[in-house]
Design a protein that fits this description.
The chain is 64% helix and 10% strand. Strand 2 and strand 3 (94-98) form a beta hairpin. The protein has helices at 2-25, 35-45, 52-62, 67-80, 104-120; strands spanning 50-51, 83-87, 94-98. It is mainly alpha-helical. It contains 5 helices and 3 strands, in the order ααβααββα. A 3-stranded antiparallel beta sheet has the order 1-3-2. It starts with a helix and ends with a helix.
Length: 121
């Protein structure tokens, strides 16, 4: 039991330190970072994908006020291609992770745009 408590306390200390580092790194001119910046920092600093409850727990510690807004920002980041979702198992549970590379559509559009610009020049 003591070992479990020790592991949990170390995990909380690590996540708190990561959140503080992300928060201080993304503060520009004394202005607090936005919700997407906070969420990006949380996802960047964790080695494993997180579900929305785990993200909300860390986001609340970082200063976000609304769970609904957090989920909307995650959805917007997913649509923009910054975050990918993966099924966690049975049911409708998903985990969020940063996308390792841009979406294929965006990469294709970017190369087509470069080719169109070079052809018109």
């Amino acid at each position: 039991m003591q070992r479990l408590c020790l592991i949990i306390s170390r995990s909380l200390q690590t996540s708190a330190a990561a959140l503080q580092a992300a928060k201080s790194a993304s503060t520009v001119h004394g202005v607090e970072p936005g919700a997407k910046a906070v969420l990006y920092g949380i996802l960047r600093d964790t080695p494993t994908p997180l579900n929305s409850a785990q993200i909300w727990q860390q986001a609340e510690e970082a200063g976000l006020k609304s769970k609904r807004h957090t989920k909307l920002m995650l959805q917007a980041m997913r649509k923009a291609g910054a975050v990918q979702t993966k099924p966690m198992g049975k049911g409708q549970n998903y985990v969020y992770a940063l996308r390792s590379s841009p979406k294929k559509d965006e990469a294709t559009n970017a190369t087509q745009g470069v080719q169109a610009n070079s052809a018109s020049a």
